[in-house]
Automatic annotation (TrEMBL):
Highest taxon in the source lineage: Bacteria
Bilayer-crossing regions: none
Domain Aldehyde dehydrogenase: 13-449
GO molecular function terms listed in the Swiss-Prot or TrEMBL record: oxidoreductase activity, acting on the aldehyde or oxo group of donors, NAD or NADP as acceptor
InterPro entries: Ald_DH/histidinol_DH, Ald_DH_C, Ald_DH_N, Aldehyde_DH_dom
CDD domains: ALDH
Name of this protein: Acyl-CoA reductase-like NAD-dependent aldehyde dehydrogenase
One Pfam family of this chain: Aldedh
Keywords: Oxidoreductase
UniProt cross-references to Gene3D superfamilies, sorted A to Z: Aldehyde Dehydrogenase, Chain A, domain 1, Aldehyde Dehydrogenase, Chain A, domain 2
Length: 458
């Protein structure tokens, strides 16, 4: 196993619960980035030629090792991101399951036989794309990285992985555990901030797989347009929650609170804006304010004070523009990066808190006169990640899932969905399948083969 030994920068990370300094963010220099890509390129042909069953066995071994290190990874995740212990452990367990999933799916990933001339054989054969640059986020560092690393490695690609600079120890340790079960240079690890990520994304790789912010995703698209690499992106979202007339407002408030406040609102598919039918708006808002108070004692901090300041800026901007606070909305005293569950009413589509991704524990609410207006406003957005609709009207449900221009529509459950579901985000939210068996297709390229016998010698 060969790992990049990074230098250090002056950037520090802090425990978001206490404000204590954890340490500096390691920073790979440009030469280290180039060396990691070159090494992964040199190892690519050997790993691609490794039988799929052997690659799967390596991933199974890695998954077992991650399970054995679950306590360590849980602690690192909590220290760097502020996740409560149960949530952090859930992310590690999900990562183990995902590695096993791709270890099982990799050997049965298949091509097609075409029906051509009966005297010949025509095949569509999938093969690895080559070198995959994987850039992963901090909000669920083990679970997200496990998917991209697992799918890339199972299909015979080599990988250069840069975890988020907000959780460098978690990301590095997780990748080191996997790399220990692979041949040298099949998985290289880089630490660093956006400069390192930008250099990696613009290097001579074959795929750039990124989960993170939309602004970064746009830069990656531009870089890939120059290099010819395939961009696989899951970026920001501004996910709406539609609350229809006729639903129980207390239950709807529970769903809204779960979607807006879980992990302090730092989930890619968090509820970012709420459109509630006027018929149930008053009891819904009362119940949601009560939910915010109940959630206040059980959520962790935000990842750092920089993100907290941006969330609070959006809240203050909404208040200045006419919104009203029903719960929260004030910066707390004390150490760390805590922010209270916040409910805003009288929001308008022009407010930043309603028009952009907030990524904090904020539930901005807008009252609408009817279901059609709610759907129209939910769809009027540059993002296209996910949406949730709470309704007891099956016709409304059918119309909603067919018409909303997003990758995932959830009816009557903000985090519902069967295992293995894979969606393609739209617009500013990214491109390509980022989950499930379809991710194996993203990590491979197809070669068409026509095999025909030569004529007999004359």
């Amino acid at each position: 196993m060969t790992l990049v030994e990074p230098t250090t920068s002056d950037r520090l990370i802090y425990d978001p619960r206490t404000g204590d300094v954890i340490g500096p963010v390691p920073q790979a220099d440009p030469a280290e980035v180039d060396a990691a890509v070159d090494a992964a390129r040199a190892a690519a042909s050997g790993w691609a030629a490794t039988p799929a069953a052997e690659r799967a066995a390596a991933l199974h071994g890695a998954a077992a090792a991650v399970r054995s290190a679950a306590d360590e990874l849980t602690d690192l995740t909590g220290r760097e991101t502020g996740k409560p212990a149960a949530d952090a452990r859930g992310g590690v367990d999900a990562g183990v399951g995902t590695l096993i999933q791709y270890a099982e799916l990799g050997p049965v990933h298949r091509g097609r036989t075409l029906h051509g001339d009966p005297g010949a054989t025509d095949l569509m054969v999938p093969g690895p794309r080559g070198v995959v640059a994987v850039l992963t986020p901090w909000n669920d560092p083990v679970a997200v990285a496990a998917g991209l690393l697992g799918a890339a490695l199972a299909t015979g690609n080599t990988v250069v992985h840069k975890p988020s600079e907000r959780c460098p120890a978690t990301g590095r340790r997780f990748a080191e555990i996997i790399a220990a079960h692979l041949p040298p240079d099949v998985l290289r690890i880089l630490d660093g901030d956006s400069e390192v990520g930008s250099r990696l994304a613009a290097s001579e790789v074959d795929v750039v797989a990124h989960v993170g912010g939309t602004a970064t995703g746009r830069k990656i698209r531009a870089a890939c347009a120059v290099t010819g690499a395939y961009a696989l992106l899951e970026n920001g979202g501004n996910d709406p929650l539609v609350v229809d007339a006729g639903v129980d407002p207390g239950w709807a408030a529970e769903q809204a609170a779960l979607g807006a406040f879980a992990n302090s609102g730092q989930i890619c598919v968090s509820v970012e804006r709420i459109l509630v039918h006027a018929d149930v708006a008053a009891p819904f808002l009362d119940a949601l304010a009560g939910q915010a108070a109940a959630w206040g004692g059980r959520i962790g901090p935000m990842v750092d004070r920089t993100l907290r300041a941006e969330v609070h800026r959006q809240v203050v901007g909404a208040l200045d523009a006419g919104a009203r606070v029903r719960a929260g909305g004030a910066l707390p005293d004390g150490p760390g990066a805590f922010y209270p569950p916040t409910v805003l009413e009288d929001c308008t589509p022009e407010m930043d808190v309603f028009a952009t991704e907030t990524f904090g524990p904020v539930a901005p609410v807008r009252v609408v006169p009817d279901f059609a207006t709610a759907l129209r406003e939910a769809a009027d957005d540059p993002y296209g990640l996910a949406a949730t609709v709470l309704t007891s009207d099956m016709a409304h449900a059918q119309h909603a899932w067919r018409s909303l221009p997003v990758g995932t529509v959830k009816i009557n459950n903000v985090f519902g969905g069967a295992p293995g579901g894979a969606a393609q985000p739209r617009g500013a939210s990214g491109t390509g399948f980022g989950h499930g068996p379809e991710l194996l297709d993203e990590m491979t390229t197809v070669k068409v083969v026509h095999l025909e016998g030569a004529p007999a010698q004359r």
